[in-house]
Amino acid sequence: MKSFSPALQDLIDAFKQLPGIGIKSAQRIVFHLLKENENKALFLADSIQKSFESINECQECRMYTEDDLCSICINSDRDKHILCIVESPADLIAIENTMQYNGLYFVLMGRLSPLDGIGPDELKIDDMAKLLKDKSIKEIILANSPTIEGEATANYIGSIAEDLDVKASRIAYGVPMGGELEYVDSNTLIQAINNRNLIGN
Ligand SMILES: [Zn+2]
């Protein structure tokens, strides 16, 4: 049944690991790359390699950047007293695209999921708490996804904020339950941010 050479199978398996790519899509991408001229495929391979060599996490907010601090953290026009907590760089971009938020961010790079071995350490929540203390943050907006793990993460961070006397609100209105934030349209997100709920009151 299996008729791919080992190298071809390896390449297909590599693409299959990507989110949203099933076996059929992986095969289609690989056949497309092989059919195209070599330069295109090598450009892709080279871009991936260069990214891993040059891109790292911002030392403050964990957004991907090629510098120590990202363009948002070094921007003096941003409101330094409000911190929006998001699960992923894609969520940060989704909120930035609404052009309605001018504070800082912290990217968790995931959500609490004990069964998958993802705890506060993996999300670097201590680093976030340090930001709250060091940067005199007055308010955090929890933009975690409305999933069970997202809610648990938001509650956990909300309680840390409460201990530190930082006001915490949670985006709610308009964001569908079980949905991923990055797929929510801008208007819905704007409403969600504007109608955020205070936590613990
Ligand atoms: Zn940053």
By CATH reckoning, the class of the largest domain would read Alpha Beta
| Helical percentage | 40-55%
CATH topology of the largest domain: Dna Topoisomerase Vi A Subunit, Chain: A, domain 2
Number of strands: 7
Strand order of the largest sheet: 4-3-5-6-7
Mean pLDDT: 90
Rough shape? elongated
* Terminal residue distance: 61 Å
Subunit organisation of the chains? single chain
Structural class: alpha/beta
Q: What count of structural domains?
A: 2
The secondary-structure element order is HHHEEEHEHEHEHE
Task: Indicate the CATH architecture of the largest domain.
Answer: 3-Layer(aba) Sandwich
Bound ligands = zinc ion
Instruction: State Rg.
Output: 20 Å
Low-pLDDT residue intervals, each spanning 5 or more residues: none
Strand composition percent: 5-15%
Described by strand count, sense and barrel closure, the largest sheet is: 5 strands, mixed
Descriptors:
alpha/beta, two-stranded antiparallel ribbon, Helicase, Ruva Protein, domain 3, 201 residues, 2 domains, elongated
Describe the structure.
The chain is an alpha/beta fold. It folds into 2 domains: 6-54, Orthogonal Bundle (Helicase, Ruva Protein, domain 3), CATH 1.10.8; 64-198, Dna Topoisomerase Vi A Subunit, Chain: A, domain 2, CATH 3.40.1360. Helices cover 43% and strands 13% of the residues. It has 7 helices and 7 strands; from the N terminus they run H-H-H-E-E-E-H-E-H-E-H-E-H-E. The protein has helices at 6-16, 23-35, 38-54, 89-98, 125-134, 148-163, 186-194; strands spanning 56-57, 64-65, 79-86, 103-107, 139-142, 167-170, 197-198. Strands 4-3-5-6-7 form a 5-stranded mixed β-sheet. It has a two-stranded antiparallel ribbon with strand order 1-2. Helix 1 (6-16) crosses helix 2 and helix 4 crosses helix 7 (186-194). The longest helix is centred in the first third of the chain and has 17 residues, at 38-54. It is elongated, with a radius of gyration of 20 Å. The model has no long low-confidence stretch (mean pLDDT 90). Zinc ion (ZN) binds at residues 58, 60-61, 63, 69-70, 72-73. The site of zinc ion has 8 residues, from loops.
